[in-house]
Amino acid sequence: MLKILVIILMFGIIVFVHEFGHFIFAKMNKIKVNEFAIGMGPAIAKWGRKETKYSLRCLPIGGYCLMEGEAEDSKDENAFGSKSVWARLMVLFAGPFFNFILAFLLSIIICHYYAIDPPVLSEVVAGSAAEEAGLQAGDEIIKLNGSRVMTFREISIFRMVTDPSKPVKVTYKRDGEVHETTVNLKLDAETGQYMFGITSYGREAANFGEELKYSLIEVRYQMKATFLSLKMLFTGKASKDDLMGPVGLGHMVSDVIDEAAAQSTPETKWLNVFLNIINFMILISANLGIMNLLPIPALDGGRILFVLAEAVTGKPIPKEKEAIVNGIGFVLLMLLMIFVFFNDISNLFAAK
Known about the structure:
The chain is α+β, with helices and mostly antiparallel strands. It has helices at residues 2-28, 85-113, 129-132, 153-161, 208-234, 246-262, 269-293, 300-313, 319-351, and strands at 33-47, 53-67, 123-124, 140-144, 147-148, 168-174, 177-183, 186-187, 194-195, 198-199. The strands form four sheets. A four-stranded antiparallel sheet has the order 5-4-6-7. It has a two-stranded antiparallel ribbon with strand order 1-2. It has a two-stranded antiparallel sheet with strand order 3-10. β1 and β2 (53-67) form a beta hairpin. The longest helix has 33 residues, at 319-351. It is globular and about 70 Å long. The two termini are 21 Å apart. The model has no long low-confidence stretch (mean pLDDT 88).
């Protein structure tokens, strides 16, 4: 029960922060908010007697900030559609932006307790592809095939999304000077994977300023990982079994909590569990921010697209047409959620 409550609270905080972003910017732009809800389905509790009603709903799978005139025509001067293009764009972008802020704030905690991982090589394996290319311990990897690298973990992601059998152009820094080399990855007989043959053990942040810097880099890494995961999904490098919804994520969080507790001493048990939960929240919050910015109807990105179209043409998209498109998008999203739900259940039983 405790783990279930932790998982519900974790998702609840992430959704609350997202919807609060919409809410606070709507209020700042004098847009009337009819209801601010956490959760979906029937209401467990309702309160508020002024223009905004607040509610807590029974299904912890989302939430919403319902603004006047957002989905229908309204002549109210404080309706969403009555405000300027810039005001509406700010309100729509605020939800995902607040998710990025949450991920950044939580990353400060992680960077304070955990080692940071700049892409500086601690060791180059003898006879490896990296050694043959001239790389040495102490080198800092800057780019891989022209793509900027700011954490050592990005090197692992790079191997997953590119053809590892092809040569890799590596830009690196040594003694303050920038160099370039080409690495031909070697197939490891034991793992069956193409390897650079490099390691990095990470280090502690030197001061609070560096913690802030690497917190921003951590958010960048999570955003980049999300985009690359989507690329893998659409290019066939990831399968439907790699899709995961609230059930699958909840199960994974449960496993992470158990593993963190089992590998800790009694003195560090609760701290390690807490930090693992925080780490997961960073991942989910950054993912939610990116996914909501995709130009898909019914999501923030789809609504932003309609407002941008109005900015370009000078004419608002008729609400009835926007409602139809968003309605279709919502139905498709619900179908996707149902598919992901049953996929999660199927994967759970398969794992057992």
